[in-house]
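stage 2 :: seqdesign
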């Protein structure tokens, strides 16, 4: 029987793109696995944890899917303790690991994911990496959905930037960035042992517009990839900068907690669907529908 306690969580919205294209059926094909789960793989060599999509259920003959992105941590023995100071190991069954979950809904018609943010689960970038590995396509992106499609607007070569403000965590492999100036910046940060970069570029002379155009494109790329903490672009025709982080569509939801202290899955899926309905106007604006 469920308790009367509820737990709040954030809900994020992503469109899954392949090489920048929103129209494809790769994730749909993955979720159509008749087993109800996908292959479990490690994302890093030597890790004692495996990721997979679990508990897959098709809704209305594939109009939508509900599922869990799960991480199983092996090689650890959980510990239990009492208030009197006594402690003991928790014995797991052979072949079992600790499971951490993010519930999500997927809508194939828009390739949209409605994702439960869970501090004990996985960041959506892990989900993105998992999908890329399983379908063997590198240019997979879970692009955060914005209150307007500012990605498309900023990538328009006719849109002129006046100022670009970026803060990001550089990956270890600078080849992930196509622009030479970002490669050089990341190499310098790595040599200095830095963990983040903050770059602000603003110029007033037309001859420097080429640099700003590159910076504008990189701001979009970093925001799409979930690597940017700050990604603001001031353009000519707007008084305020476009903020690719603050403009993300995020909703607050809550679900009932069961007697086992965990969220009741059906309550989570219902909360995710309610969050989608609440932000329908922003979602339709983003997709132009």
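stage 2 :: out
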């Amino acid at each position: 029987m469920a308790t009367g306690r509820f737990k709040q969580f954030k809900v994020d919205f992503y469109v899954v793109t392949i090489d920048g294209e929103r129209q494809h059926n790769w994730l749909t094909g993955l979720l159509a696995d008749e087993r109800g789960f996908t292959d479990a793989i490690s994302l890093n060599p030597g890790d004692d944890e495996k990721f997979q999509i679990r508990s897959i259920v098709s809704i209305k003959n594939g109009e939508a899917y509900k599922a869990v992105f799960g991480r199983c941590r092996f090689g650890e023995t959980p510990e239990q303790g009492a208030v009197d100071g006594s402690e003991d190991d928790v014995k797991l069954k052979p072949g079992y690991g600790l499971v951490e979950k993010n519930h999500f809904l997927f809508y194939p018609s828009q390739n949209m994911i409605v994702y439960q943010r869970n501090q004990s689960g996985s960041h959506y970038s892990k989900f993105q990496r998992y999908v890329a590995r399983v379908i063997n396509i590198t240019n997979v992106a879970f692009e955060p959905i914005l209150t307007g499609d500012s990605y498309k607007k900023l990538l328009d070569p006719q849109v002129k930037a006046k100022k670009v403000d970026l803060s990001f965590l550089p990956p270890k492999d600078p080849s992930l960035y196509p622009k030479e100036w970002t490669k050089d910046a990341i190499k310098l940060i790595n040599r200095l042992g830095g963990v983040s970069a903050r770059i602000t570029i603003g110029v007033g002379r037309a001859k420097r517009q080429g640099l700003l155009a590159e910076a504008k494109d990189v701001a979009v790329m970093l925001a799409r990839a979930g690597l940017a903490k700050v990604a603001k672009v001031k353009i000519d025709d707007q008084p305020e900068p476009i903020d690719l982080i603050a403009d993300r569509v995020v909703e607050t939801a809550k679900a009932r907690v069961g007697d086992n202290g965990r969220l009741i899955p059906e309550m989570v899926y219902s909360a995710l669907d309610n969050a989608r309905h609440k932000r329908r106007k922003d979602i339709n604006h983003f997709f132009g529908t």
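stage 3 :: structure notes
- Residues 209-225 form the longest helix (17 residues).
- Helices lie at 26-31, 124-135, 150-155, 180-192, 209-225, 265-278, 280-287.
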